[in-house]
Backbone:
């Protein structure tokens, strides 16, 4: 049984979604604020975190960054905010995905399944012995890691899957829709902000100058491609 940590200050929302997710077969631990959430996270790391951005003590952005400082567990933002800046800021703080309130339980469950599926794909990649190198970045699939100049990169599972997808289609333009389907595992539940935010995060980790990328370049109006 997969375990979830749900950090949400609205009692009614937290209880209702917890019951719905338990009906889907998940074990759910609840936290009404950021500090409690971080304590529960430290006590036992869950398989996935559901995180509200607006909390009464710490902001969801701060909670996300603290979790990301030492963990690659999938994080899905659950928020009432539809402002592009807040959503992108949450993704760039380290979240893998987001849903907006009012949350449809079946949609949330679908996103959770997709995120956990990416975890299994990340683990399964170790079965493959294929490797790739582009610039000073090396992808070692037999170990499930990527290195830059010989130093292991701290990639989330989603970032790793994104890098693998680029490596599998080196020098080819991949559209945002293709990346949503292949990396996030769905065609219609996400939007291009997911892709753009994760490409920016990946560039920060693999590019010498992220603002002037030489590896993952933009195909204007279409998507991205990896130059290898």
Residues:
């Amino acid at each position: 049984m997969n375990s979830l940590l749900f950090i949400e200050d609205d009692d009614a929302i937290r209880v209702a979604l917890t019951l719905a997710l338990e009906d889907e077969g998940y074990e759910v631990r609840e936290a009404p604020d950021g500090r409690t959430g971080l304590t529960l996270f430290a006590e036992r790391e869950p398989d996935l975190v559901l995180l509200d951005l607006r909390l009464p003590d710490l902001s969801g952005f701060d909670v996300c960054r603290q979790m990301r400082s030492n963990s690659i567990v999938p994080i899905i933002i659950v928020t009432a905010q539809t402002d592009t800046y807040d959503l992108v800021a949450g993704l760039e703080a380290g979240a893998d995905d987001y849903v907006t309130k009012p949350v449809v339980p079946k949609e949330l469950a679908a996103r959770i399944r997709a995120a956990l599926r990416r975890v299994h794909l990340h683990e399964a990649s170790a079965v493959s012995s294929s490797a790739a190198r582009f610039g000073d970045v090396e992808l070692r699939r037999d170990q499930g890691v990527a290195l830059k100049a010989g130093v292991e990169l701290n990639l989330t599972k989603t970032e790793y899957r994104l890098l693998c997808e680029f490596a599998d289609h080196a020098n080819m333009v991949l559209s945002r829709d293709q990346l949503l389907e292949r990396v996030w595992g769905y065609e219609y539940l996400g939007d291009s902000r997911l892709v753009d935010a994760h490409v920016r995060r990946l560039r920060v980790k693999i590019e010498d100058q992220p603002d002037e990328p030489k590896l993952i370049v933009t195909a204007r109006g279409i998507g991205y491609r990896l130059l290898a």
